[in-house]
Amino acid sequence: MHKLTGRLVIATHNAGKLREIQALLAPYGVECLSAGALGLPEPAETGTTFTENALIKAHAAARASGIPALADDSGLCVTALGGRPGVYTADWAQRQWFEGPAGRDWYMAMGKVEGLLCEQGPEADRSCWFACVLALAWPDGETAVYEGRAEGTLTWPPRGTLGFGYDPVFVPAGGAMTFAEIDPAEKHRISHRADAFAKLVQGQFGA
Fold first, then answer.
1. Three-state SS string across the chain, please?
2. Does 193 map to a domain?
3. Is 2 inside a domain boundary?
4. Is 87 among the domain residues?
């Protein structure tokens, strides 16, 4: 089984995700290269689960670059909405008249979630969780997958400017501030991505 050493392509064009992943990997001496900086295209995310989409992205980046690649697929899952938006988290932020990441309107996406909850009335269940799957792929096709989760509740209106995506409406379990209000170092400690990374570190570095 391969172990992670040296250079690693981070298969994302999302600057927020890239910063978080670089910070989490920094202590392990791994040189992170972004798919965007290498000019790698974004593959179509045709999977119906976080794992399928993460593997699609990791395999594509590893094949195109010739070095190991790490892909993240994550999203917000709302209990009262049957786990939606889930794997379609980013799609809910997509403005139909503009293609690509720059066309994502996260305030619109947060508003869509809130609107659907409001339709259920004031007693709607506002519990939710962020899910994260990290997929490592090597050029020879070997893979490793790690799953993480962070429980929380939804608040409205959005608060904070430090996060990205749905962070301004997500209050982690036991907390009072949103992911967009707390210090990034604290978010890195308790987030769904941190949970998945702890499992990756254990599996890859034995730490």
1. CCCCCCEEEECCCCHHHHHHHHHHHHHHCCEEEECCCCCCCCCCCCCCCHHHHHHHHHHHHHHHHCCCEEEEEEEEEEHHHCCCEHHHCCHHHECCCCCCHHHECHHHHHHHHHHHHHHCCCCCCCEEEEEEEEEEECCCCCEEEEEEEEEEEECCCCCCCCCCCCHHHEEECCCCCCCCCCCHHHHHHHCHHHHHHHHHHHHHHCC
2. yes
3. no
4. yes
Known active-site residue 73: yes
Domain count of the fold of the chain: 1
Give the residue among 92, 82, 204, 105 at the shortest CA–CA distance from 146: 204
- Residue 29's domain comprises 7-205
Give residue-wise pLDDT tens across range 98-139: 455 556 788 899 999 999 999 999 999 999 999 999 999 999
Question: Any idea what the CATH number is for the domain that residue 48 is in?
Answer: 3.90.950.10
Note whether residue 178 is domain-resident: yes
Catalytic residue among 72, 73, 167, 195: 73
Residues 155-185: tens digit of each pLDDT? 999 999 998 889 999 999 999 999 999 998 8
